[in-house]
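Recall that a protein's primary structure is simply its ordered list of amino acids. Everything else, from secondary elements to tertiary packing, is in principle encoded there. The following example makes that idea concrete.
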Amino acid sequence: MNTNEDMLDPIIVIPEPDPIIPVNPVAFPTIDPITEIQRQNYYYFSRRIAYDSRKIISYSGLKNTAYDVDKKLKEIESNTISFTSAYVVLDDLDKLAKFYAEWMTKEELEKVKSLRVLIFNYQNRLNDLRNTYLEKEQIAQKAENDNKPRFGLTKVHPKDWDLILSITGSARLWLHYVSKYKIEEINSKQEFIDELILLNDCLSELSRYSRKLHSKLEIELERHLQKTNNILLLDRNEPVTSFDMMKHYWSGKGNAVTLQQLGLFEKVKSLVKTPNQLGKQNGHSVQGDFIQQIIKNNRKSFRNTYSFRQNVGALAINNPLWAIGGAIIEGQFSGNAVSENGKFYLKGEISYKFYDKFTDPYDTFNLIPGEWNPDGDSYDINGKWTEPVSVEISQTDYLNLKQ
């Protein structure tokens, strides 16, 4: 009488792989015919190992196939750019899209967005596939370990398993209880390899596109520098651009400049007093927080570094505030808490000092490769001004300030 085990359906193994289809088929480059043939050959020879029907006749062949696929997987992974590195490049492209928006076409801006989405999708897809093949690997190993005693293979060298199984007539049962899990492990790893190959195509495109965009912007920078006014900053009576500041680095012999000479004096003064500027949020301002520091803690001075690149607008590199980047602002309060007509006030003035050092234009144009770091002399940027203070305070604060 035949049992269900005697009537097992044959295991079907795909002799040739299905075409590789991208998860998100956008942003791929046009490939010349020769490269396309090379890619097809690479796909075929990297994939045929797992799908070659001749290799699944024996379990030893399956184990050898698993070893070959593991080796191929490690080889491709070792040559794959890490997602961390890819996102560094993407962040660089995002900065290019932000600061050089007027020099980029709509298609270029959309390309930056699509590359980020594509790589993010691959990351999620590969994480899922990795978890799948690791799970199937564990299942296959457990099936093998659990069935070795059942089939009398515990003391037999693996290379002799096929012979023992053939002699005992258990080959088809072994295929059912063990081999099919090995096949699933191999094919899930091969699916992971397929996605890695597609990811590498995408990362290569990302690298090529990044270099292309940088080259274009180098040309634009050079064109703008050539158009920049040759009159020295010290002789100007008008607002300047970041390109003017770069030229002063080359030809100013290290002479310091003031905020007035840069045309930034009133702007910087305003930013110090305006809410939600220079990194402040929720209605706070640099001056407002300093006054509260005086009132609540009786601390009458501060010295901090603030970023001036907030809200500088499109084509930010033309804005000298963007060229300044981060600068030091100091504040010193002189005055007292006073009582007038039954009310209490903090009265006096704040003396402000501004300081920055313009050095290494590569830090200013830090989205462009190293040739944008020409020889020159760093120079100081200084500014100072005072602001009157007259703020009503509580009696408790008044008494604390009088102690």
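The two ends are 105 Å apart (CA to CA). Confidence is low (pLDDT under 50) at residues 1-29, 41-56, 366-373.
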